Amino acid sequence: MFYLWLVLFGCMSGISAVLFGFGGGFVVVPLLYHMLLGGHGADPASGQSAMHIAVATSTCVMIVNAGMATGKHLRAGNLIRHYLWPLGAYIGLGAIAGAVLATAVSGEVMRYAFVAYLALTIADCLLRRGFLQQAGTRVPRRLGPAQTLGGGLSIGAIATFLGVGGSVMTVPLLRRCGLSMTLATSMANPLSLPVALAGTLTYMALAGFSQGDLGPWFIGYVDLLAFALLTLGSLLGMRLASPWIGRIPDRLHARVYIGLLTLVLFSMLVR
């Protein structure tokens, strides 16, 4: 049953990656966190490191999800180069710092940070103008140099610390630049790749600093068995979601995006 749940949630992460730009973190992190605690309790090494394992494995799954989804959106003509570079490079630099910081704090700190950030993001999307409704026919504006540098570093650091890929920050940012939900969520996938690559490599490089023996399927905090099963499911999910690219009405797309964030928030509040 454990393996079936991993494949099922992997399928959900693939769908969310294609349609909402979530590289997998908002599905994978809560799932693995609760399954590790439920299966091992809080005493064994895997239970004590449940949040670290969930975040590290999530970044690894994101490499596949974000990479495959990027290819699909590239073929659909949904990617705009000047929003991807140099923002993506700064996100990668911030991601390294975020992964290092995550290994230095407790799992509970990471969990509370995950919940707090979700709550702030949901409130921001609901209360600040420019997200729920596209700004008329206004020509999308470009990101300024300061916004690109500061935004990229902070997005990379926060995303890797929480294991969420950065879509929760890049989508609202690009949405307020005047992009449709289809374009904003499409752009979130290539912008999640620097987070996924830098985060995974850093978590693996810090393997010697992990506490206790997590088991034979681990490299650092990355659970390779969970990664394989989640990836298998995500490939199916992306195939199912591909026909819906660009077909969801913009306002509905934005509302469902916020609704999914709210569901994840409640799932992380439950112990």
UniProtKB/TrEMBL annotation:
GO terms for cellular component: plasma membrane. It comes from Pseudomonas chlororaphis. It comes from the Bacteria. Its main location: membrane. Pfam families: TauE (PF01925). This is Probable membrane transporter protein. It is a multi-pass membrane protein. Belongs to the 4-toluene sulfonate uptake permease (TSUP) (TC 2.A.102) family. The keyword DNA damage does not apply. InterPro entries: TM_pro_TauE-like, TSUP/Inactive_protease-like. The chain crosses the membrane at residues 7-33, 53-71, 83-103, 109-127, 148-171, 191-209, 221-240, 252-270. The keyword Transmembrane applies. It is found in: Cell membrane; Membrane. Keywords: Cell membrane, Membrane, Transmembrane, Transmembrane helix.
